[in-house]
Amino acid sequence: MFKIEETIFGKITQYHLRNNDTGEYVSVLPSYGGTLNQVGLVKNGIVHELLDGCTTYEELISEGRNKFKGSKLFPFPNRVKDGRYSFEDKVYNLPINFPHENNAIHGIVLKSNFTVVEQTISNQGVSITITYTTTGKEEGYPFKTTININYALDKEGFSCKTTIVNIDTKNVPIGDGWHPYFKTGSTIDNCLLSIPVECSYEVDRRMIPTGRSIKELFFTKATKILSTQFDTCYKLANSEDTIFTTILVDPELDLSLIIWQEGGEGKYNYLQLYIPADRQSIAIEPMSCLTDSFNNKEGLLVLAPGETRNFLFGLKLE
Description:
By secondary structure, the protein is mainly β.
């Protein structure tokens, strides 16, 4: 029923997790930052590609990295103002990889070579685990961590678990997130969106939070997106249920894509939404912290030596 395939994707290897009975699949690029490149899930016997990933290696190394398609965001999702932050009385300077804003963005592992360390296949599902270690020599982030990512496909859908371990002798600041672009086959403008949101955050012209939060009244129930412009960070609402669900509905195709993320203390309690100019997809990004958390400290996690944190999100199609 389930299997793992390897194919050549330009100069690198793409791993495909497959359910042969349903045709469902998940594709990842371990040696290019652990990129999540494809997810196809089934409804009424039809497999729907749900990610706007990169179809060629050339796209991956050009447009793909400009849009951060499917990227793993560590040790910070979103932006760090001027690439500069202080931690425990020391000042650090990260590389500026968004020069038009003079910001560092989306972490330091975007192109890192993750190694496949485990493949699991059973009658219930299939998974692959990859790993990467920051050495403490990276510019602006002299901290040693191990990042383990488990991608899994089973009868319930897709899930992704990230485990971060502080292997240093000192405290380590971290944030974590993902940058998938979702599509259904129809224009995003015609889709409906609902978010379990508590508030959004005002930002300046460089997309850095001003310190002001805004009580959200929009998209808390299914609402047509229309021409709404999103490049917005949200804090998700407190709930007795620690699983937050964002729902993207395509009424034309009768599809409901459920993006779920585990919330709770030190988990994915934030969400970034972004619609690119072509409006054929929407980035729905689970994050553990606010934009510029290395400076404003909102959601920033500090791991003691030997401490571990887990983060979990996934997809279902109904």
